[in-house]
Amino acid sequence: MDDLSLIAFASAVLLLAGAVKGFIGLGMPTVALALLTLQLDARSAVTLILIPMLLSNIWQFWRGPDMIGCAKKHWRYAAILTLCVAGTVWFSQSAPDRVLRAVLGVFVLVFCFFSWRDMVPPIPSHRVRLFEGISAVVAGLVGGFTAAWAPPLAMYLTGLRLERDAFVQALGFLISAGSVSILVMFITVGHSSSPDLAISAFLLVPTLLGFSAGERLRHRSNSEQFKGFFLGAFSLLGANLLLGTLLG
């Protein structure tokens, strides 16, 4: 795929991913990766979403109600996530693309299942540290492979029963921390080049345009109906990624 075709394809994907996030609040990275890997290898797909993912989540964290309180509450999770992402990227440098696609497929399915069923139980107060550590390690391992850390991260925050604004701000803080780690490590090990990162920076524009459009549409449409259609379609896409690696 030549550069112009790549930019056009990735722009369309990030426009859609941003719109979906603005419309129903689902994770932009998971949506973008599931679509980008239809044409690109997994590491190239991750590289293209790095800058939009990092900057959009820093903005999300900054817009929240209590930046200092959020950071104090979730710094342990952020530290574990950052270290696990870095370690996973380092030790998985030679992992074949089909393994990364399989991991992505599994977590797209997990993401869709728990988003659809809305079945995460509350975390008992005396078990918060335990589940914090487990979730951060799992999110770091998966994030280091594919940046698809939404399922364990969102499940943990849902279990805390945070207010919506605090939930959104915590997502922004933690994904920003993980994004910095994966960006630094991808550059360190040579997965990301300067031209790739320049394209990634450009893709922030369609991402934010899509997000803005999605927010406006949310107030005019049936978001639950669209959510069901979207999750059904992406369940099929996740299954296709997984079966393609197992049978191919």
Automatic annotation (TrEMBL):
It is found in: Cell membrane. It is a multi-pass membrane protein. It holds the Pfam family TauE. Keywords: Cell membrane, Membrane, Transmembrane, Transmembrane helix, Transport. Its main location: membrane. InterPro entries: TM_pro_TauE-like (IPR002781), TSUP (IPR052017). The chain crosses the membrane at residues 44-62, 74-93, 99-116, 128-150, 170-190, 197-214, 226-247. One of its GO terms (cellular component) is plasma membrane. PANTHER family: MEMBRANE TRANSPORTER PROTEIN-RELATED (PTHR30269:SF32), TRANSMEMBRANE PROTEIN YFCA (PTHR30269). Belongs to the 4-toluene sulfonate uptake permease (TSUP) (TC 2.A.102) family. This is Probable membrane transporter protein. It comes from Yoonia sediminilitoris. The lineage of its organism: Bacteria, Pseudomonadati, Pseudomonadota, Alphaproteobacteria, Rhodobacterales.
